[in-house]
Write the structure tokens for this entry.
Amino acid sequence: MTQYNDLQLIKRQFFALRNGIIADTLRKSGSPFRMIFGLNIPQIVESASQWKGNADFARRLWADTATRESMMAACVIMPFEEMTLDEARKWIASSPCYETTDFLCHQVLRHLPEARILAGELINSSDTTLRYAAVRLMWNIYMRDPAGILEMAKKGADDNDPVNSRVAASLVEEIRFMLDDSECEDCR
């Protein structure tokens, strides 16, 4: 009987669940990955869940920058307790597209105790994609400190990049609504 290592096992799962229509749509939309199996988010989460908490495996998957599902699965598997702020900076800087940035912020970075610090650093970056990451991370953490995040989000809303400014302006609107809501005593 053939023995497979973890990387081979998860790739076999990706292959078994592949969806050509989604893969083709992602390719036509400009996805930067050479290998796209076309799995949706729930399929990626389910495939990766058996390795959840295995930081070494997550790092190996994140290093597989040619495969969309590998990088997405790395976000599911990586235990946030083992990710340092420096490693978070490296992962976000190496994220090849908005999809992986969104997923990384939602699955891992929002859980970091230093998430607000990271968002503050990223919003001041000269790199448009890093500023986008800041705004996406802010969306995941704004309930912790709405007034503090509001100030950073305002900076994002003034971004010269139309995507960043639109996403940040929505966040500013959401936080203002929440802070103005008389039922939100905990938010003040």
Q: What stands out?
A: The chain has eleven helices and no strands. The two ends are 62 Å apart (CA to CA). The mean pLDDT is 94.
